[in-house]
Amino acid sequence: MNKTQQKRFDSLYRKHVSALKRQGKADTTIDVYSRALRRITAFFDCPPDTLTQEHFEAYFESLVRTHSWSTVKVDRNGLQFFYKYVLKKEWNWVEIVRPPKVKTLPDVLTLKELERLLNGTRELRFQAFIFTSFSMGLRLAEALNLQVGDIDSERMKIHVRCAKGKKDRYVTLPQSTLQTLRAYWATHRHPRFLFPRGRDAQERHTATAAMDRGGLQKSFKAIVKDVGISKAITIHSLRHCYGTLLTEAGVGLRSIQHEMGHECPKTTALYTQLSNHTDVNAGKRINALMNKLRILWGQA
User: Fold this and answer.
1) What is the greatest pairwise CA distance in the chain?
2) Each residue of 61-102: pLDDT tens digit?
3) Is-contact 157 263, C-beta < 8 A?
4) What pTM does this model have?
5) For burial by CB atoms within 10 Å, which of 15, 101, 105, 271 has the most?
């Protein structure tokens, strides 16, 4: 794009982000809808308000071949939002044939592999984060956003705030996780964040934000490689490990669904067959599972 076109795009992009914020969209939605606008602009190297129906058809033909179906859907929704609320134009729906659904199962780690991962992690902040994420089945953002005031040590619960779908929930806080969080917090004593950003204790104590999401994912990938785990594992895989191991520990479907914040039991069915049994001893079983791990904690 030339300078005039770039200026036009910048103006439209700011209006797009502003419209998303005004409608109260979640940060993740703002991120992916904005990325959709950047992606199609870069694809054709011209402002998005100059694109025709033929442009969109060519773009989505390419996107279907090169990206996941979820990306295709998100981009279409993001561009539809742009047309409706920024350009104030009618969106001409682009017909896309969904490819055959491939049912795959995520890789999960055994307890022994989890021990190897945790014991092979040299920095206490990463150890504490990995163990916290796994031991409560938290999503990446849920763990990153944990705050000191979210810990209820009397009820042994963690208050997960504004999770997926902007819904709160309480999850079981294993005793070993409480001890881990206390030990790590004592190294930085941030008044708010459990996992503050910073390269050392002083920076973490005065941090104004939580740990960087991208940096954390990059470090986790390096740790997995260093300990010799060849499975396709990400931080989100820890959540799948949690659900799978709870199933093997005998925790019922409804308890797992509640702990993990699943809207639909079909999601939980990834880990266990449907059951109407509610496990009243879920807390005891979760603590017993976490206590099986033998972790050599690193230095702050």
Assistant:
1) 65
2) 898 888 888 888 899 999 999 999 999 988 777 776 565 566
3) no
4) 0.65
5) 271
